[in-house]
Amino acid sequence: MTSRYDVIVIGAGHNGLVNAAYLARAGLKVLVLEQREIVGGATVTEELFPGYKYSVFSYVVSILRPEIIQDLELPRHGLTLLPLPSTLTPLPNGDYLYRDDDHYHTLREIGRHSPHDAEAYEEYGHAMYFMAKAIKPILRMVPSDPSSLDPRELKRLADLGSHFLGIGEDNLHTLIKLMTMSSADFLDEWFDTEPLKATMAASGIIGTFMGPRSPGTAYVLLHHYMGEIDGVYRAWGFAKGGTGGLAEAIASSARSFGAEIRTDSPVVAVVTRGNKATGVALEDGTELNAKRVVSSLDPRRTFLDLVPADLLPSEFVADIQRFRFRGSSGKVNLALDAAPEFTCWPGNGPHLRGAISISPSIDYLERAYDQAKYGEFSHRPFIDIVIPSMIDPDMAPPGKHVMSCFVQYAPYELAEGDWETRREEFGDAVIDTLSEYIPNLKDILLHRQVLTPLDIERITGLSEGNIFQGELDLSQLFFLRPAAGYANYRTPIRGYYQCGSGTHPGGGITGAPGRLAALEILRDLGL
Amino acid sequence: MPIPTPFHSRTSELNQTKEWREWSGYWSAATYQHTHEREYFAIRNSAALIDVSPLFKYDIVGPQAAAVVDRIVPRDITRCRIGQILYSPWCDDDGKVVDDGTVWRLAEDRFRVTAADASLRWFQDCGAGFEAEVVDVSHSIAALALQGPNARKILLELGGAEGLIDLPYYHLTQGEIGGAAVTITRTGYTGDLGYELWMDSADALEVWDRIVLAGADYGLLPAGLAALDVARIEAGLLLIEVDYISSLKALTESRKSSPFELGLGWTVALDAGEFVGRRALLDQAARGSEWSLVGLEVAWSDLDRLYAAFDLAPQVAGRASRDPAPVYVGQRQIGQATSMTFSPMLKTYLALATLERGYADLGQTVELEMTVEYQRTRVPARVSRKPFYDPPHKRS
Ligand SMILES: Cc1cc2nc3c(=O)[nH]c(=O)nc-3n(C[C@H](O)[C@H](O)[C@H](O)COP(=O)(O)OP(=O)(O)OC[C@H]3O[C@@H](n4cnc5c(N)ncnc54)[C@H](O)[C@@H]3O)c2cc1C
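Above: query sequence and flavin-adenine dinucleotide SMILES. Below: predicted holo structure tokens.
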């Protein structure tokens, strides 16, 4: 039987779409199958309250790869990345810490809290430039398998080694610290100011089931700087139209190259013959053939749900079973009748057009984590806020606002009760926490959407609601993502590939896994 | 010393950077905020308010006004209906461009022409012997550009203008804002949806305040020249004295350009009657022009590579540059780039360049000189379509 498609991509999250676009661009006949009625996965915008558009899950584009923007001509397909130049950390005592792209203003602001930290801040930025520059090429590399004797793998490993040896001894030391230390310890070496340390450390815990004092969290601090070093390029920011705007742009690009995208098409199994993937089966019983199948779902779904276990080596199955998801975050989206009024900074100012972080101190974050460790959501959580309508007025009716609140911690498994019955209680904890800083919040609240890890899992398929398709810690990164020997986007099944955030270089809106996987598939095809 | 525009009391209050440029002898804000980036994105994403009062404006009035305008510009003015606006350059007798601007037909016998340079004498000379008068209204009329995808919504909020909702691109209507009579033209220098509002200088502040109030919920920001410069390059719009030199000011013949050489051949109606420079342009049209003003695009990946050779991440200025740079093919210099900017919308580096005709075809690869770490280097660039950025809402 001949296949109508060269490749079927399962899942139209941003990585699946990037993957499909690259494959179609190379001339392949590509079909993308998405379970939901819209594309985007964790990058979707939905109007859940009339006139108010929520960036439902992800809310800022972190480090979308420039090569993808260029190759897929995303600006031509409507991608607009708007700057998000400031971070406000409101404090319980009515003060605040504010940083933005006005360098000296930021230094004065930090200096208000600690003159020492203002100077350290500059040095820190300088050091991080080198770290980010050292790490950046890894985002473009296919992970090598250190145990392999394949010359291609060895060459990759050697390249990697020489790359790191080339960064200089001092930088190498800092890098090793970043890889092994907790973000709190790492930042303690530089700063005293609690809100500064906590807000920076917060970027190291997003999406993980770790606290700021857990070793290994320092590495994620770098992600922020990776977006930063390209200066005017601004690979990070707020996507016009919400992150769904980004997904639409990639989908439009994929279609322009000839890819077909079908929504409302859940895949229930990958069809195999012998040890080869030959197509997929849909929920409604339809079977579709393709020469190759790519899964953009997380490793658990890709391997444990969609393919028969007997086709996979048992140690590999064990690795995937051990792959940690442990969702730790929730999301609360709000529709507001007016602009929120902060006690620390009343009125409508530049502080509302950037990120707002409820992270007054390291202890605050660690306490939030403590509750989660024992199976309870944080009653005073870390909250990462943006007000999309302040940046893109089209997100809400004129003068009205939407507010996106990323919340941590919310463990997937609750010790007491379950998420079905405790969802609104969780929502209340978020609103109560916010109200301590925004007294008018309850008065202007028109609608709220509360998403627990369970909701995230149910809607997007992200196992246990882990936002990155599996934790980003060293034991699950690079050549171990998702499992040793299978970090190069291939799988034990011939013709079956993986391209989601569960593969290198991991989660966040980068598109990198989707692209690298496409390049490997094209290489296998000799294209 | 520059003098204030009619909006100065507002713009100076808002200009946090105190950074001004001189524009035709007026104070003109370069950036209101510490970076022009927000102002730029207001143009592209919401709406921006730009004080464009320093533009020169002339009314040409009288029974033979149309004939005068037809003599000045190479476009066919007989086709310009009342309420319509044409963009046009105008030339000297040798067919070399003097200036460019917009020509509006306000009535059968009444036109307005906007110009970058003082043009009263030139227009009067062109109109000598005709039954029409050229009046300089530059100082008595204040002008604001309201540009960006939300510009229409803001104007509608203000009400007071008929036919605004479907006012076509390059057309005008009369309206009223806060009791002041305002001429609204659907024009601008950004390549986005946008309008320009023209009013008596005495009404300037009232109109400004009303617009700012109406725009508050639509993301309206005042924008300065730094943001405008990026937008106009993305829109592929030329700037006099930067991308070309007025033939009245050029110090050498080679600095003068014909409309054909500036990519403005489409404005030249050679068979629609006499106009200044027609004979020379007929000649040129037959010979073909030597130069061509084109768009160049430098891919980010090439900049990345260029800087990586110096062990640096790309360090590209956020602002537009007007420092000309040579363009090469092999060892030969085949032209120069005159305006350059990184495009925050397109994520590529753009330039407007004048190249030898043989190298000006779309897709042609050339090399643009760039200085990195004090060294002159070259980066590949491709001749691209202008406007680089051309959103559908510009015309819709
Ligand atoms: C609440 C939340 C907030 C986040 N915030 C940010 C942020 O601000 N910045 C950032 O950079 N990153 C953020 N992330 C992470 C980032 O969004 C993800 O890492 C990334 O979008 C994942 O993309 P993906 O394509 O790999 O997978 P997904 O987006 O998970 O895509 C998988 C797709 O497959 C579909 N699917 C699942 N099962 C099937 C099936 N059986 N058949 C067919 N289709 C199926 C799903 O519907 C989905 O569309 C956030 C994530 C979440 C959940």
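Chain A has a mean pLDDT of 93.
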